[in-house]
Design a protein that fits this description.
The complex is a heterotrimer. Chain B is an all-alpha fold. Chain B has 13 helices and no strands. Chain B has a domain at about 55-300: Orthogonal Bundle (ABC transporter involved in vitamin B12 uptake, BtuC). Chain B is globular. Chain C has helices at about 1-25, 35-55, 55-80, 85-110, 135-140, 145-160, 165-175, 175-180, 185-210, 225-235, 240-260, 270-285, and strands at about 125, 140. By secondary structure, chain C is mainly alpha-helical. Chain C has a domain at about 15-120 and about 140-220. Classes of the chains: A alpha/beta, B mainly alpha, C mainly alpha. Chains B and C meet through helix 6, helix 11 and helix 13 of B and helix 4, helix 10 and helix 12 of C.
Amino acid sequence: MDQPVIEMLHITKRFSKVVANDDVSLSIRKGEVVALLGENGAGKSTIMKILYGLYRADEGVIKVDGVPHRIGSSRDAIRFGISMIQQNFSLVPAHTVTENIILGNCRGIVNYGQKEREISALAKTYGFDVPAGERVRNLTVGAQQKVEILKALYLNARVLIMDEPTAVLTPQETDRLMEFVRQYVQKGNSVVFITHKMREVMDVSTRIVIMRGGRICGTVKKEDADEAVLSRMMIGHSLEHLTNPVGGAGENPVGFSVRNLAIRRKNEPPLLENISFDVHKGEIIGFAGVSGNGQQELCEAICGARPVTEGSVVLDGRDITHLTVRQHIESGIGYVVSDRLRYGMVMNMSIAENLLLKESYGPKWKKHGLLDRKKLNRYAAEVIRRYSVKASDPSVPCWSLSGGNQQKIVVAREIETGKKMILFDQPTRGLDLGALHYVHKTILEEKAKGKCILLVSTDLSEIFTLSDRIVVLYRGKIAGIHRPSEVDAEKIGLLMSGYRKGEGKR
Amino acid sequence: MTQKTRAAEAFLSTFLAIAAGLVLSFAFLPFMGINPLSSFGLLFSSMFSDRYTIGTIFVKAAPLILTALSFAIAYRASLFNIGAQGQFYMGAICAVAVTLGLQNRIPAFLVIFLAGLAGSLGGGAVGALIGFLKAKYHANEFLVSMMSTYVIAELMDYLLRTFLREKAKDYLQTDSIDPSTWLPVIVGKTSVHLGVAFAVAAALLVWVLLFKTQVGFRIRAVGLNAEAARMCGIRPETQCILTLFISGFLAGFAGFIEVNGMQHMLITGLDADVGSYGIGIAILGSANPIGILFASVLFGALKTGGTTLGQVSNVPASIIDLMEGFVMIFVLISYFVRHKISLSRTKRLLGKAVKHG
Amino acid sequence: MVKLLANALFMSTPLILGACGEVVAERTGMMVTAVEGIFLFGAWGGFVGAYLTKSLSVGFLAAIACGVLVALLYAVTTIHMQQNQVVMGTAVNILMTGICEFFYRVIFGTPLEPLTVKPLPVLSVPLLSGIPVLGTILFRQNLITYLTWVLVPAVLFLLYRTSLGLTLRSTGENPEAVDVAGISVSRVRLLAVLFAGILGGIAGAYYSIGDIGMYTTSIISGRGWIAFAICFLGNWNPLLALGAGVVFGTFDAIGVYVKSLGSGFFPSELFTALPYLLTILLTVVRRRFNAPAKLGTAYVKER
């Protein structure tokens, strides 16, 4: 009777450089919500991808309803009722919700009208407000996630695996997701949450499995769970506590200010409208808001990568609004981008060359007209030493570094470039606790040097810990500016979702 | 896995791929009743038959080096300049026009210099135009450069039929240029002319540019990740125009050395495959100027040997195209094979480490 | 004038065929840069088949086989070996130039007079071809042209109204979504490229045995690339590709007409260059706003 729906026994999986799963055994029962907790690289995504047929285990057995089966592809997994929703949605943005859901699940001539009606009905059953005929790229991230869930439901999934689902949601959307999860498991289905965020985990899971270094290092029942204990199990040791002298910087002179900044487009809502704020020297301004509300555009505008329709950006008394990116860099602005892979580094180039990227003009690295490689390598070696980057020498390509070490290089470069101001855009996304701690420490050190710091993050706890003041962006406008002592996460969450001051929850 | 062993592996696999390509090319000769083995042997012996023929290898290699460099430098910036043939023609047109116009009127070395400059700038202008269209209008440079070759070829034929036509009006070609404007022969008893030296120098210069200068660094950065480069203050649009200008400049220069150094006139269909062969050589040389030098000499040798082979036996000259095609494909496949082998090797080592660790 | 338009439709057929194949392939993310080689080998195979068996049908079947072979080589190296599509396409095109030339010699030697075949006959549609003006333009074409006109809406239907079409389109936009749905991305792409090979082979053969009745080395001269461009310009939509193809065919026809008027100092070369110039112009003017998102990129995954 109490036979688990899924049993994974002694699973081992190796990739070209690392053992991702080392003799992992895991079971999932009906009506259970299992939280798979662990840092990045702990192996939690891997083990679930094996269950979903995206990877094939090198050793071990998978049993469904007590019977061993071979799950060679996602098709097999789907047949057994296993569905997975990954961090990067596997949706086709240019296609409609209906087209996305029926992909691979229809034959011959398709009657789109009928399918749309089917899907609308399904969405209604679960209370999802998703228009079946809308193109996915026009939906909010939260709605897109619902499309992914609908896809699983359409295929009658009874085991739903969700990989970091709350990373892209507002607090209110997270609540709604948890509501859905409760509803879903009440019907006898099971859910596996892969996450490294403990708060949501504690909310809804029945069992917590902690992984570290490819192995399971503990299983805890919800009743017995304690945040501090879980944290230590995840990383294996305690982290030093960081002190942040918050608020004092208000007395310092203003180092950077933005006035009436707007980026408007023809026939479309503006990307930014009426943005005005000041940053004092030695102050950290935290920008909270769900991705896609103008944060990226604001950062790009400040750095000169995006043309501005109206308004001004002033650094240390100098109007830099319409200068080129290069001129911004030379003015002393550092920008730690959110998407390191696409905008931050050239992965195929070495550490030394990546450090050179923002300084390739001018005489600093030139000798007799040619690149002074020796000088560059010496500098790179110094960076590696000072920031404890795990790399053998400056000439290794950056793709060979771990995410945390790559971020160290980017941060090192931007600290050097940003002599007056640094923007940190999602600086700890995808990093494990150790690297995250390092980045926070660095941010506080730079603050102490009197630089203006802008921090953009979807991680509210990070915003609250580090910011002197919090600015909430919603649909390109400022929804509010507050001190962390004056507000709580719920209030910020409301602002992030567009509720204005004075309005309550609906 | 040391650097040395990796390099040795690379060399070996490339060598095997080339050998496989050559063997396959000759494998079809029995259908014509020709003995492949003896033809193969004949190919090599004719390549090295005498001093003059060996010299021809380098003469044929020279324009190939330049067109290969042309494709390679654009490739490094993630741009595809398929129009080297057209830029070559443009260079040839400019060079011959300047030479015919100025010969015997001003000192010869000046004529040569101006012809070289005109040819290179002519090719460079075409390249820069393609770059501009891409930078400003996001026009696909692959298609535009491809089409531009056909357009310039027609232009060349038109000019050869009208303004540049030889006095005798028998063929679609110009008059021969005055011997004073010929690039001098630098190796006695061969046809190896100064242009060959220029081509080799160009390869070395491009190597220095790409890997030892800030300009080259920016070109490579834009090629590897244009968006990241933009965020770091490097404008991909500027790099695009600059790179394609250099690319066209090199191909145009090839046109000059072929006119003033080898052919001594402009004739329709001159070196009609130098562009596409250049692409193949660039690929073989992994878009690296040093590799290109070696690959160009290889193809120069195959071309020379193939032509002679065609003259002394019944083997058709088109076997050269076969050889080039097969060799290219096999070398590309060898990259894949090597990658797979290295992957499985690392996996095996990892498995062993886990067992013992 | 009427003759010109009829000729325009005649000359647009292979371009439309090639473009349709290219559209289907590019919708799955594969830029078939070997299209020139496919056309060439198709032209060669079509001629060889037709000449040796004195049958045009066999010729076209041989052309299909040839087109598929080239497409297969290209597909395996770019899909399964993940080589760069542009580089591989160029390599294949160079190889095919050599193979066609070489094997023409192997089979036919060096004949003193060019070998010929009777080209495609005109098939007048009964009744409809009698309509003044329109009848001559539309209904006095050959079989392949008629089939092409049927093919275009068929491909359109396939793409937008069938599950296979949905899969094809999704593969080009986000192959990961297709993979996760349990469909083999490699297989879809392979089939799409082979389809382009079939159509490209027929298109190539159209030039040799459909039009002039013989094979020469310069018979294709970039026409494959024009079909490639038409796919772009037609926004990856078969119907628009048809339109673009007709435009190009018209220019081709005008060029032929002007050339037949003889040439003096008048640049008849301009008219030969016209299709290529037009391609450049249109490439500049039109932006790729509807390109399949993952066009030209290989899909790699760790297993």
